[in-house]
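thread: overnight batch results

M.L. [08:02]
morning all. the overnight job finished for the chain we discussed friday. pasting input first so we're all looking at the same thing
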Amino acid sequence: MAGEIKILIFAFLISHTLALHPQDTLIISNDKLVIEDIIISGNMVTRERIILRELTFGVGDTILKMELLPVFQRSRENLLNISLFNFVYFDATHMPGNRIKVLIEVTERWYIWPVPILEYAERNFSYFIQHREWDKINYGIWLKWNNFRGRRELLTGKLRLGYVQEYALSYLIPNIGKKQQHGFSTGFNKNQQNEIFLNTINNSPVEYEPQSIPAMVRLNAFVNYTYRRKLYTTHSLRLEYFDYEVSDSVAIQNPNFLGDGRTNLGFFMLTYNFNHDVRDSQIYPLEGFAVRIRAEQMGLGIIPDFPYRNLRLTGVFLFHQMLASRIYFNNATKARYSMEKMMPYALGRGLGYNEFLSGYENYVIDGTDYFITKYNLKFQLIKPTTWTIPFIRMEQFNKVHYAVYFNLFADAGYVNNVFPDPTNTMVNDWQFSTGVGLDFVTYYDQVFRIDYVLNKYGEHGLFFHIETPFFRW
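M.L. [08:03]
and the structure it wrote out:
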């Protein structure tokens, strides 16, 4: 009896093993899908090749079944990140022989924007709200033609009047060549101000308006080349010319504004940018990371009497991670280092302009080198939601997506200034702040933020911002 039981057990194991082998083979063979075709709809303006360039797959590729949804999600994020579409949907039609057709439906944005300009001219929105200096209002017209000719080109023209007068024109074509790996842009900008920040005293910018206006005229012209071999890494080389001209009284009031009492300063600058970005969104990322490196050589020897030749290095690291359902963490860190420490005031700005610490919006911390890091814990109060406005017929505007996030955050920063003014006590010292905030994220890349912040000096209050976080970093 015992021997018969052993024989039965042995036979069962053998038969079970033989049964598993073809089943495993079937699973492996059926686990792969071949993309037979990609069908795109909704692209009334955008060329198909622009959309295909952003996909992580192509016709003829083989994809594991378990990877199909992640691949679709990554490609959808890539398409949304080029800011041509409000909505992107993926689907697949299964065919015999483990073949599929990929269906992509896009909702294009409105691309031609003759936008009236009515804006504040302060360093940030919170400073304007607190001081409400209504004479610092700009007005004019800004023409932005995105996706020009359906090739993702960007044509912009700007006429700004009021507190700051500006005339600008630029053109960008990012997808040149058969593989769309090359890009080119060029443009110029003329900026005229009757009142300028002349100096920094007591950690605040000193405004000055001379009797002989304008106070400053700045001209900038550039050409830029970009190379993007794959999807997420971009190299660019930019050649710029700057020309600053100030009134005589500006040079008298602050001889170091352009250095050595100059009223005119012109120079060339060559910039190399490296950008590796694998975040899920460039507007309001929740997952992924980005690394940016910039090297700027100011003064190329083309203008021999330019005395401030300087190599400036900048590094940025952005990290975003989902910790749990609806809970996210992110860190943004940026550092800048300049070889030359004695720079004119107009060329040596630190924190308080493009980058600033939360709770320090009213202050300027000038220096040639700085370090800034921000930590943020986000709670998703309202998931990304789509709402259709019934009385608007144009699909570019009748669907609105929005989300709301609650934030707990802490900032820290340090600015190095070898030759500080004694009244500027925030330089060469660590600065800190912490607070809570609320972000409202909506379509056309708009982020509205309100923060309640406490800084190192016990100062606290509400601060408002209307911008894309870290977009200028």
